């Protein structure tokens, strides 16, 4: 399942970019099909997390892209493959996070700090320190730190890939706040961390306990 998700993302973005006529439709069908496959093969606890991720991610995309205008997709819309894509990336992050070494989350934070500071000092990405602070807040507020650190890195890889292909682009001048942003900002993963923080909070509240670092409330069915 993890390989299917990775292949869907890796092959889907070039298809959307280079098959102008039907690419976005084909990728959207594939993303929803894989998301449905994941749903059917997951246990109820995981399904609640996937559903929460889908709803929150969709609302976040509407606000950040169409409302705030922090980034824009190449056709000026929100492609239909984006909401299920968030779900697939979230699930993949939970799988990788289990293998992150102890204290690995703080190693990620320390490694990112000098680059964020350098980009901000040069004026290339003055939004970066705010996003980095948001990332640290996620690490501080929840025991699921390994998930947030994993998503911080995983989403950066996806952002670099998607912006390189031209599927979307970040606005060099951030609306409303008068800051600059790289394409993509190094700390763009902070937005994904907030998404996951909200998902984990909802799942934790439903299960009656906080979701631990190993994310037992997000564990998948053994068939995965």
Helix share bin: 55-70%
Task: Tell the overall outline.
Answer: globular
Mind summarizing the main beta sheet? 2 strands, antiparallel
Low-confidence stretches: 205-224
Please count the beta strands (DSSP E, at least 2 residues each). 4
Structure description:
The chain has one domain. Helix 5 (104-121) crosses helix 7 (145-165) and helix 7 (145-165) crosses helix 8 (189-207). The longest helix has 25 residues, at 44-68. It has helices spanning 2-18, 23-40, 44-68, 82-97, 104-121, 128-141, 145-165, 189-207, and strands spanning 71-73, 168-170, 173-174, 179-180. Residues 205-224 have low confidence and may be disordered. 41% of the residues are buried. The protein is 66% helix and 4% strand.
Keywords:
single chain; 224 residues; two-stranded antiparallel ribbon; globular; disordered C terminus
Write the layout of secondary structure elements.
Blueprint: H1 2-18, H2 23-40, H3 44-68, E1 71-73, H4 82-97, H5 104-121, H6 128-141, H7 145-165, E2 168-170, E3 173-174, E4 179-180, H8 189-207
Antiparallel strand pairs: 1-2, 3-4
Helix pairs in contact: 1-2, 1-4, 1-7, 2-4, 3-4, 3-8, 4-7, 5-6, 5-7, 6-7, 6-8, 7-8
């Amino acid at each position: 399942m993890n390989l299917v998700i990775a292949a869907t993302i890796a092959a889907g973005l070039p298809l959307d970019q280079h098959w102008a006529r039907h690419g976005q439709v084909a990728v959207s069908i594939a993303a929803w099909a894989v998301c449905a496959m994941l749903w059917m093969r997951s246990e109820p606890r995981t399904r609640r997390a996937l559903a929460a991720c889908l709803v929150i991610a969709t609302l976040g995309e509407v606000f950040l892209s169409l409302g705030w205008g922090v980034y824009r997709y190449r056709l000026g819309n929100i492609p239909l493959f984006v909401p299920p894509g968030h779900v697939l990336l979230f699930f993949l992050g939970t799988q990788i996070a289990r293998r992150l070494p102890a204290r690995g989350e703080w190693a990620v934070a320390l490694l990112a700090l000098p680059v964020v500071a350098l980009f901000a000092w040069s004026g290339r990405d003055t939004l970066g320190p705010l996003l980095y602070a948001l990332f640290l807040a996620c690490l501080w507020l929840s025991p699921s730190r390994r998930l947030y650190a994993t998503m911080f890195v995983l989403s950066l890889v996806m952002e670099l890939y998607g912006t390189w292909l031209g599927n979307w682009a970040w606005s060099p001048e951030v609306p409303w706040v008068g800051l600059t942003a790289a394409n993509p900002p190094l700390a763009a993963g902070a937005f994904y961390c907030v998404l996951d923080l909200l998902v984990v909070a909802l799942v934790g509240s439903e299960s009656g306990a906080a979701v631990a670092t190993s994310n037992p409330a997000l564990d998948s069915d053994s068939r995965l």
